[in-house]
Design goal:
Layout lengths: L19 H11 L9 E5 L25 H11 L6 E7 L7 H14 L4 E8 L6 H9 L3 E5 L4 H7 L9 H15 L6 E4 L10 H10 L4 E2 L9 H4 L1 H4 L3 H21 L5 E2 H11 L19 E4 L4 E3 L2 H8 L6 E4 L5 H5 L2 H9 L21 H8 L10 H19 L2 H11 L2
Parallel strand pairs: 1-2, 1-8, 2-3, 3-4, 4-5, 6-7
Antiparallel strand pairs: 8-9, 9-10
Helix pairs in contact: 2-3, 7-10, 10-16, 11-17, 16-17
């Protein structure tokens, strides 16, 4: 583990770690989540959608309407505002959340009137197919961040994310993204895009990077598939081995680094930057997936359309498949306190302490890593599982090894670039 105060990868020397107080401050920064409460609150406005994505994680076969009502939404907000955090993040997900835009509006307006001086950051993840000028104007007026689901060039995007009517939706996403950039103007950094990597994407590492760079995006996030929903069912068609993904990741990163060094692009890979910041230890990085214990309940809560509260977004995805182990309560009977003290909350916290998991406790990467009890339960039938045998672990180790190798063995220019990403 590299600590600030040792020689950095750029060749510069920081002041030495010469006291327990300095070491404690470093520990506090890289484990900031231990000293806070749930800051991320995910509102699942509906499971209805106008696309048929091959990897959909929110697929639901229960029948009937799945739209969150305003009564449920008000109770959701009341519980979220019981969190003692001063800075909160409200994220709208689905299905396609714009199919229940009325409830989205209600949550923003209701929470704004009751936040009592606290800061709330609002974010929307959307496929843009239900966007209108009126909706976009309202989102801009209320400073809502917009993340467009965009899997790359048209031949990748439409294959991964087909419309239910069979027509291409790629041009529509691009059109609304461009429109949003104009409407938001100087706040254009609030407009982002996010791809999901499937087997269809693997042959096109450079094309994906060029596409995102050409959009003028500051970041690209190379996100692997999860085992939830359709992604698990369609694994043979769209899945890949951890080695195949990490090979793709390395090709993308090699190309991103070369573009940066040549001055052709300033695109960054967001997960790599976050890991570098954790390694360098100069910034607080409160990424809920890589915490010990994990950020379920202690860092995030997911409020389903029906009023049930889950430990995390993945927990509610499990519920869609009939597995209720990660339900921490419901908005009609529970309070924030009873949710964070629920059996579900205790189970995920106990199972995700990486220092006490036998297969992780001696891993060199454990200080910057984290466990996911929902993933373990889904893939191995146990909250703690044996992470070292999981595909998730193999992907993370592959990414960690790539970054460390480039930091140690790359050219001076490469090490300098990555050190700047990490703030070393």
């Amino acid at each position: 583990m590299f600590l600030p105060g040792l020689r950095t990868f750029s060749g510069k020397t920081c002041s030495s770690i010469d006291s327990a107080e300095r070491s404690a401050e470093y520990y506090r920064r890289i484990n900031a989540g231990l000293f806070g409460a749930a800051f991320l609150h995910i509102f699942v406005l509906t499971l209805e959608c106008n696309l048929s994505c091959l990897y959909c994680e929110a697929e639901y076969s229960g029948g009937g309407s799945t739209k969150m009502t305003r009564e449920t939404a008000s109770r959701d907000v009341d519980i979220a505002l019981q969190s003692p955090e001063e800075n909160l993040s409200f994220e709208f997900q689905g299905g396609e959340p714009l199919l229940n835009f009325g409830t989205l509006k209600f949550i923003v307006e209701y929470s704004s009137s009751r936040r009592d001086g606290r800061n709330i950051r609002y974010s929307l993840v959307t496929n843009a197919q239900a966007m209108t000028d009126e909706i976009l104007g309202w989102l801009s007026d209320h400073d809502v961040n917009i993340c467009f689901s965009l899997d790359g060039p048209e031949y990748i995007h439409d294959r991964n994310r087909p419309s239910k009517n069979g027509e291409s939706n790629f041009a529509n996403v691009l059109r609304w993204r461009e429109r949003a950039l104009k409407v938001y103007g100087v706040r254009r950094k609030k407009i982002t895009a996010l791809p999901t990597i499937t087997r269809n994407t693997l042959p096109y590492s450079r094309e994906l990077v060029d596409f995102y760079s050409g959009l003028g995006n500051e970041y690209i996030s190379l996100r692997p598939l999860s085992p939830f929903g359709k992604a698990g069912v369609n694994r043979e068609n769209i899945g890949y081995s951890p080695e195949e993904f990490t090979d793709f990741y390395a090709k993308c990163m090699d190309y991103i680094i070369s573009l940066n060094l040549s001055g052709s692009s300033s695109l960054k890979e967001s997960f790599s930057e976050m890991l570098l910041q954790k390694i360098c230890g100069r910034y607080t990085v409160n990424y809920t997936d890589l915490r010990s214990p994990c950020g379920a309940v202690t860092g995030q809560l997911a409020y389903n359309w029906d009023g049930k509260i889950y430990t995390c977004d993945e927990g509610r995805m499990m519920a869609n498949a009939g597995i209720k182990n990660f339900c921490a309560g419901n908005v009609f009977d529970d309070s924030y306190k009873s949710v964070v003290l629920s059996d579900a909350a205790c189970n995920v916290c106990n199972a995700s302490c990486i220092e006490s998991n036998p297969s992780c406790s001696h891993c060199v990467f454990s200080p910057i890593c984290g466990l996911c009890p929902v993933y373990s339960f889904r893939t191995q039938g146990d909250y703690a599982g044996v992470p070292v045998t999981q595909e998730r672990c193999r992907i993370l180790r592959g990414i960690y090894m790539y970054i460390v190798d480039r930091l140690l063995s790359g050219s001076d220019e490469e090490r300098g670039l990555l050190s700047r990403w990490g703030g070393c």
